[in-house]
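Q&A log
Question type: sequence-to-structure
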Amino acid sequence: MAAHSAFISAEEYLRREEAAEVRHEYIAGRVYAMAGGTIEHGRIVSNIAGELHSALRGSGCAHFESEVKVWVEAWQCFYYPDAMIVCQPNVLDARLGMIDNPLVVFEVLSESTEGIDRGAKFAAYASLRSLRQYVLIDSRSYRAEIYTRTGDADEWTERTLQSRDGMIELAFDTKTIALSDLYDGINL
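Response status: OK
Response body:
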């Protein structure tokens, strides 16, 4: 992702983003156009949404895809996660699609975003006290990395799944998602 402007305020970013045809992320005063996705990336995100819809039915929690922004105040940034679970969303602005309290965030890794997803995004999301889990799904191989917060501490455990047989145990009401379901329709 390349910066498209000099420093601007978060308010100016939101004003511009509301009218923009292409989504942008905002990181400490800089605006970055979102990278285009691949068919595999799009299908995995769609599969995540379908699985979350089933897993969350009747729970009072919701799932959102990449149309809803997450505000990370400590890092002064807005990110569009590929998918997330939110319980009792703290809706900062419904019209602008902004929340600040995801419970679980999913990012689908691609060659162009993997470094950011593993580094700066994870660090920023981890600063949110609401976040219990960060899930990275590889779009190029059958692999998922699940980072789960232990207690209220800033300590995280990591679990890596490297086969279609793996099960992602969500940090939400003992729900699980089969990795094979996330890769449904994908030929790797």
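Response note: The radius of gyration is 16 Å.
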